Amino acid sequence: MSKKVYDFWIPDSSYISLLIHIAIGIDMLLNNQEIELPIEELKLLQTYKEYVLAKEIAINPEKYITSQFQKLR
């Protein structure tokens, strides 16, 4: 999907890492733990082309996570 829409490819190992980080983030949010990122680091991350995909996943995670789990079955 990332190759079709954003013209770059993310390797499977990166998807696994992404899923782990999403799970950790969800767990932290469910336990009322804040996720903080210095504004300078956020501004730097926003300059990367991958940020657009990450932002879209953050808005609608079920769409992307569900499709990845279905591929594993």
Global shape: globular
Number of helices: 5
Give the strand content. Answer: under 5%
The number of distinct β-strands equals 0
Stretches where pLDDT is under 50 for at least 5 consecutive residues are none
Please summarize the sheet with the most strands. Answer: none
Protein structure class: mainly alpha
Order of helices and strands, N to C?
Answer: HHHHH
Provide mean pLDDT, rounded.
Answer: 77
Rg measurement, Å: 13 Å
Give an overview in words.
- This protein is an all-alpha fold and 73 residues long.
- It has helices at 2-6, 12-30, 39-45, 50-59, 61-72.
Outline of the structure:
This protein is mainly alpha-helical and 73 residues long. Helix content is 73%, strand content 0%.
Tags for this model:
single chain, 73 residues, mainly alpha, 73% helix, globular
Topology:
Blueprint: H1 2-6, H2 12-30, H3 39-45, H4 50-59, H5 61-72
